[in-house]
From TrEMBL:
Recorded superkingdom: Bacteria
This protein's name: Solute-binding protein family 3/N-terminal domain-containing protein
NCBIfam families per record: SBP_SaoB_CU
Length: 178
């Protein structure tokens, strides 16, 4: 779950808590022309994306919050010069793909759990299986197969290399906490 949605959930339902970060830097920029950036669209209500845009392009860039599904359309039709979007969803979009700044890490997704589920044996099994998957995703062939299976697309080796350069990080869930 994105950090803003997770925060909203736990503020409104005390049965849940944010356990840990799962993914960082999964958002990337897709740009028409990296040298002409004046307007960037982002997903509405994702405050962290606004911070990313300002960190990357300064205060002068105009930011346009919009519904997530309209981001590629806005870019394609030239309504904006760039968008910030999940790296997986960017794979088949036209435009320059740009990773976030090298010196920054942004939490893209967090694990939200029901507090009473923490003590359940099934949660411990989930952690084991999730962590095993994260370790497998460190292998280039597994990341390619996983993305292809998930998105129902074929990726070239060049596209996989491009995705790997985006610095998306998957985190292990600490087991000792549970």
């Amino acid at each position: 779950m994105c950090p803003e949605a997770a925060k909203n959930l736990i503020e409104n339902d005390d049965r849940f808590e944010i356990s840990c970060p799962l993914v960082s830097n999964s958002d990337i920029f897709v740009l028409k022309d990296e040298n002409k950036i004046k307007k960037i669209a982002m997903t509405q209500n994702r405050i962290y994306q606004e911070k990313i845009i300002k960190d990357e392009y300064g205060e002068k860039v105009q930011i346009y919050p919009m519904i997530y599904s309209s981001l590629p359309y806005a870019l394609e039709k030239g309504r904006v010069d760039g968008i910030i979007i999940d790296s997986i969803k960017s794979l088949k979009l036209n435009g320059q793909k740009k990773a976030l700044s090298i010196n920054k890490n942004y939490t893209s997704y967090v694990l939200v759990i029901k507090k009473k589920f923490k003590k359940d044996k099934k949660f411990k099994e989930f952690i084991t299986n999730y962590n095993k998957s994260v370790m497998e995703l460190k292998r280039k062939d597994r990341i390619k197969n996983s993305i292809e299976d998930y998105k129902k697309i074929n990726l070239s080796n060049e596209e996989v290399e491009q995705w790997l350069k985006l610095k998306v990080k998957f985190f292990l869930i600490p087991q000792q906490e549970y």
